[in-house]
Amino acid sequence: MATVMYAxxxxxxxxxxxxxxxxxxxxxxxxxxxxxxxxxxFLYEAFLxxxxxxxxxxxxxLVDIYRESINAALQDYAITLTKELERATGTPIxxxxxxxxxxxxxxxxxxxxxxxxxxxxxxxxxxxxxxYEAPSLDEVWSLISNQDxxxxxxxxxxxxxxxxxxxxxxxxxxxxFREVPLHSKYLPAARSGLMQSHKVITGSLVRGSSxxxxxxxxxxxxxxxxxxxxxxxxxxxxxxxxxxxFEEGAKELERDxxxxxxxxxxxxxxxxxxxxxxxxxxxxxxxxxxxxxxLAPVVLYLRHVLRKGDLLIFEEPEAHLHPATQIVLAxxxxxxxxxxxxxxxxxxxEFFLQQLNNAIVASSMDEQLAMEMGIEPDVRLKAxxxxxxxxxxxxxxxxxxxxxVDPLEGIPESSFGLIAEQLYNQNVDLxxxxxxxx
Length: 438
Hints:
Helix content is 50%, strand content 14%. The protein is α+β, with helices and mostly antiparallel strands.
């Protein structure tokens, strides 16, 4: 599910402007030259007014151009979504269906609520069926605020009429995909292994690429989320930092968990290496513990990659971490959410979940009282900012439910609590047997 989410969101903002631009050019070519000049003149006059005009004031043919452009951009996104699903999962689209005795059908819906649009991918054979429901242009136009209009005017007024038309089109496109995060990044579950072997993997690929066409070479198959992660790490620039307020989170992990510093160093050839610094010296991440190599990419992403408004998909943050370390990381996650980072995480950890619950419950308490109980103000997490999903296996597949997040209780821990109770009862039974007379 995390991979599907990444496939659906990671390329939307990157490709949406190009998709809209292509669609706009195609639609604009179909109108007569005199109408094109009239449209440019109309919009130039509209841009001189500080107030956003009503859509009813636009010439009908111009409204049709923008409506066709948005429809075409959304259709193109729906088509490219299937390719991105294959790339992200490393699997042909037909292989994403559940394997059972009978042939199953898979259906994926990507839904935007404001503005309302929907993309559907249905997989019933080797070739997927793609459909979409476009938003109303009136609804998209209503989402452009006066502040947005001022920004478009500042960009567009000095330019010619055709550029003005395109600038407004870009703003409509941005409003259409307003619910999509600015950027989506993925931290896969196998971080420690990838960090300890990423130079070997990439080195093998580079060496093999020189033989392409000369002899048959075996290229290791990696999923798109893994190759994106490796590519992100390899392309990090030591001289560029995010400057989005996440540096403190990186420092906290280094100080409170790693008890050392993570460094990204580069040579004259542009090769980078991740080093772990302690009082004993500098060590390549490949020679460190799994805990260090697990958290090193988290530190690097906070320091060099992530920006406010981004989505970070974080698989199993508790992997290879001591329970005490999991608690520190959970607090860090709460702080990052409060600082404007969107985080989707998967977890099997009762400790991690309980700390998040404590952060949620503390938000309903007096700030000073919460601090006395060890919950700092920036760790408190409002229940309205958290959504939870429970995945449970069944005879027909995995059932996903959305339990309510209660401000006074947090996220329900039904399955974790049941296992803890079973272990406790077993321990009590064992003690009774030991204490029983022979």
